[in-house]
Write a structure and sequence with these properties.
About 30% of the residues lie in helices and about 25% in strands. The chain is of the alpha+beta class and about 150 residues long.
Length: about 150
């Protein structure tokens, strides 16, 4: 059983000479499409950067949990900041949204067609330097005391 060129222009099926790669592509695309499309769940270097920053505050109880397809940093039992892919996912006071939305790298969090108030993603360009990185983590920490714990 060989693989023929497909008559469909964007078909993943390839010539037989490339069958080893094609089989993997077909397998990944049609049998396990989510795994194939998914990159690393989260940027481990960014997670290390957050850990190194949070360790400066010995009075904080910090836990790490895998959630939202990334790594959440729970501070004093509440979700504070996440690493989602290569982005930060921040939890902040929703009253600050208009000001924060003007910051470089800001993106609203939209899940199931709904924008989540008090949450945003921040692209690398928005936290590449230490001053910006510290701004975002401090923003999350400053809201943490006021934030409600999630239901358990």
């Amino acid at each position: 059983m060989g693989f023929e060129k497909s008559s469909r222009p964007n078909s993943p099926v390839r010539d037989r000479e490339d069958s080893k790669g094609s089989l993997q592509l077909i397998f990944n695309t049609f049998i396990f499409p989510k795994q194939y499309k998914r990159k690393m769940a989260y940027d481990t270097k960014l997670a290390d950067r957050i850990r190194e920053y949070l360790v400066k505050f010995p009075n904080l109880k910090v836990e790490e949990k895998k959630m939202f397809g990334g790594l959440a940093f729970m501070v004093n039992g509440k979700m504070c900041v996440n690493v989602s892919g290569e982005n930060l996912m921040c939890r902040f006071d929703p009253k600050l949204t208009q000001d924060i939305a003007k910051k470089r790298g800001y993106m609203p969090v939209i899940m199931k067609g709904r924008e989540y108030e008090g949450y945003c993603y921040v692209e690398l360009i928005g936290f590449k330097n230490n001053k910006d990185f510290e701004f975002w983590v401090e923003l999350c920490l400053s809201f943490n005391d006021k934030a409600k714990s999630s239901k358990k």
